[in-house]
Amino acid sequence: MESEEAPDGPAVRRGFICASFNQDTTSLSVGTKTGYRLFSVTAVDKLDCIHEGGKEDTLPHLFECPDVYIVERLFSSSLVVVVSLSMPRRMNVYHFKKGTEICNYSYSNNILSVRLNRQRLVVCLEESIYIHNIKDMKLLKTLLNTPTNPSGLCALSVNHSNSFLAYPGSATIGEITVYDANNLTTLTLIQAHDSPLAALTFNSSGTKLASASEKGTVIRVFSVPEGQKLFEFRRGMKRYVSISSLSFSADAQFLCASSNTETVHIFKLEQHSPSQEEESPTWSAYVGKMFTAASTYLPAQVSDMMHQDRAFATVRLNMFGLKNICALATIQKLPRLLVASSDGFLYIYNVDPQDGGECVLVQKHRLFDSSEEQVEESEEEKQEDVPPQPASQSYAATVALPSTPPSSTTLMGYSEDGGAQKGELIPEHEFAEGPVCLDDENEFPPVGN
Question: d(Cα 212, Cα 221) in Å, to the nearest integer?
């Protein structure tokens, strides 16, 4: 889950640091004080722990990574990317089923977020972004001097043909840079918000991009790559909030948003047909027409507010101020809302796709054993260079083991073209040796256009 800082209270007792859903919301990855855990979320009544990393018997002599604050799994494969607070500049790529390391890369600064799809692996630092080819882990492009991005905010489309990357184009306003990670070119700049960005996400096909600013009151959806505004939703008016995650449903008909408040909002992406309004001469339709007509004479801010849609469905959480991430998924043929919270639980809600309204809690799963004791205060102390926890809904990482031994790669001071800067020595093994063999690719869901 994308989070700003290590949580306090119950989350610390259970060792909860971060969490993220994989690309098709069939798996939940959780970073802990002792390693990480991978869960299957394909059933409502059962939460299976697929793998627990960080123990000597899982990755002997390779994995000594306590305090995992980034863990990303790629679809249902065995590739997992891990970054720990003990080594915040190093990215470790593992084949967790074989218990082996594929490769590791070190960077010039703390890693703030990692995003993956079947084509690319993207590593985001505060002022630079590295784009790797996931098949062999080669560095394809380095975007240097990007606007200051202290939370590592970025989004990568999971679609293999629309491998689009979105990241802040400004540190002071809500400008979005949309980058083609396949062809390594900038596509467009979107002026999305007046305030700096707080959340970004693509739909599964990479044709829509949702965004929210630090104010957290308005959520906008844009077409990709054109950058045209398609929808505008109002989350609230009375207070500014911190949006922690945005997530589309698989069919892009719904968009959910969670924040540091007790409410999760679900918006419905539907265009209101003028012809339908004319065919139903109801009082509400009449009033709606009057508001629409009046809005043309009002100031732009007031007019925009009148055209913004409210939430189609909501969830009232029994918590306030805790970091969480949300996702929309179809589980056992029914639409569900999943909320992974730093209180150490996964909440599953039923969603009524026709009438919306208040969603009903159907299951609550504990992510940690109740026997896990509270960590010592000394273990909670962080070094000065520890990075802030990533903020956003995460896309997961996973590929398989090559036949060659794992390689250790250092990426220090690469230029825009991938070469060394200022005469620095390029490491002997610059990239992973040989292609990354996707020997468990049959575990992937079918790839559509």
Answer: 9
Bridge partners (DSSP) of residue 37 are 30, 52
For 231-282, the pLDDT digits (tens) are 999 986 556 788 999 999 999 999 999 998 999 999 999 876 544 444 445 5
Q: How far apart are CA 46 and CA 409, in angstroms?
A: 40
Q: Do 221 and 234 form a contact (C-beta atoms < 8 A)?
A: no
Tokens, residue 252 = 């892009």
Residue range 357-380, pLDDT digits in tens: 999 999 999 998 755 544 433 344
This prediction's pTM: 0.78
Task: Specify the pairing of strand 155-156 against strand 164-168.
Answer: antiparallel
In the numeric block, the tokens 């939940």 are attached to: 28
State the chain's maximal CA–CA distance in angstroms.
74
Looking at beta carbons, which pairs linking 357-363 to residues 24 or more positions away fall under 8 Å?
Answer: 357/313, 357/314, 358/313, 358/314, 358/315, 358/316, 359/266, 359/313, 359/314, 359/315, 361/315, 362/44, 362/336, 363/44, 363/45
Angle at 430 between CA 425 and CA 431, to 5 degrees: 165
Other Cβ atoms within 10 Å of 101 Cβ, number = 20
Whether residue 117 contacts residue 433, with contact meaning beta carbons closer than 8 Å, is answered with no
Structure tokens at 8: 């306090």
CA distances 419 to 51, 409, 412, 426, 429, Å, are 37, 14, 10, 8, 14
* Cα 272 to Cα 160, 266, 277, 282, 311, distances in angstroms: 31, 17, 8, 15, 15
| CA atoms of 435 and 390, how far apart (whole Å) | 29
* Exposed e or buried b per residue across 205-227, where buried means at least 16 C-beta atoms within 10 angstroms of its C-beta: bbbbbbbbbebbbbbbbbebbeb
